[in-house]
Amino acid sequence: MAKEMIREIESIMRDAFDDDAIVINSATTAADITAWDSMNHVRLIVAIEQDLGISMPMERVSDLQNVGELVSLVEELVG
Amino acid sequence: MAPILAAIIYLVFGNERRTMIMRLLPIFSLAFIVIVASTSALFSALALIIPPFLFKEVLFRRTSKALFWVFLIYILFSFGVLKNYFGFGDRMISAANIAGLKPLLESIGLSFIIFRSVEYLIAAPASIIGRGTKIADMPFLPSLAKRFWKYLGFCLAFPTFTSGPITRWRGFSKDYDSRNAVFENESVLKNQIHRIANGFVKISLLSQPLLLLVLGFTGTINTLIEPNFHYFLFVLMASLVYLYFLFINFSAFTDVMIGSGRFIGLKLPENFDRPFSSKNFLDFWSHWHLSVSLWFRDLSFTPIVKFFILKGIKSNFLCSAVAYVVTFGALGLWHGRTWPFILCGLLLAFGALYNQIYREFISGGVNNVLGDKGLLYRLWVQLGRSVTYIYIGIAIMGLWLGGDPMAVFWKNIFSVPGGLALITLTLIFTAVLSCADVMIARLSPSIEGSILQNIWQTNSIEVSALKTVLSLILWGWFAVDSGGFVYEGF
Predict the structure, then answer these.
(1) Most exposed: A12, A28, B131, B220, by fewest CB within 10 Å?
(2) Is residue B128 predicted with pLDDT exceeding 70?
(3) Do A59 and B316 touch (CB under 8 A)?
């Protein structure tokens, strides 16, 4: 399930960052991807919310440290 | 005062009674505010925090965007009145002809309360209704009273009352509801005592001498009548030294408060993460005064950017331009309502925008020309650091230089002497930063295991106690008019 979600978020991230070369795993952080700055981070969150039909609470998003934590949060919200 | 109160509470209640300490936190905090500030400061604080609680209760029961905005505007307006922004407070009290209300316009701690009450209005989840938020050990209170009690502890927690760090609702809730002991083991206890002691060492050995240096520069500036090269060089050097002073002063305060907070079971957030290792403006702000920076990021910058993205705006630059101007403008206004602080906000916004432009349109070309490892590139990075710190020093000049001298500075800085002074200081400081990096790399092995490092790092209670006593004596010895913590007045 987590692997499928990582691939799904990877696909959303490629669209949001306009970069088809992006490859992520659960340990990936913003520092590992050049385009993942504060602006694109918001674009990514908006894209995930729209694609998966969820609303991510601001205080939970700001706690995230890596893709693994993002995936856990998304899975929790998707239910 | 906060560390003394925290230590007394810990000694009286012991390590295992964290839950009880947390439940009594509002009482300790109310007493602290009356002792440290005044009864009128307490009433100001209560006038500011009770409406947001009631507003949230309404929003828990009836979700409405329009109501939310009305409530938010009311909170910000009432904060403006109590902080006496634009003279509202004075005018209202004069109009009502009740001079006795004047002491209510005291600002101590109010800035930091507003952060927390706005955070509660936005972030407290509806799920806390009806579940008693695990506060079952107060069965005599109805759930509404339990929620208010917890909210009171959140807003007024005495280690964070005067100057933060700004706790977030989620983090506070976790600590408030925890059943764990105050300290996991003796080593954690010793580490917190050590952190408080080192905070006092930083303020007495580093912060106070730097403040004396700034005051020395200010004295020299006042003797220079003509805004010539020397005048600008002294003002710019003072701005730079003040930035370092502010960092040490505030990080020392943060060390003392984070350590004190742990004694009552609060894990307060960090405020600094080596800001002077930053390579550019935006990098600096992601390491400086973190609890405020993250609050503004989450509650101002991100919602504004999100709004524009949802409206279909594709340009990152356009989204960020508006978000930076609003966010840094608000940050400037938070520091003060006079023109030096409005200018401060605008300069910070411009710095962020320039950094965004550089990152998107210029850095690629620079890297192609200079490479990303050679000597030229390393010098370029040091030049970037130098420009960043000098620029931020100039932006926050309003914190130490009065309005009139600042007006003289800004009227004349765009002149040949002003430009020459800027270029001279930038080049000298670039060289200083480069040399400092080389020296740190070379000296690090010899510092490793030295007596000084051992004194700094040991968490022995005896050494920490000795460091605290000696620091307090030195602090008293060095003390000058503004020898306290800079942000205490906010």
Answers:
(1) B131
(2) no
(3) no
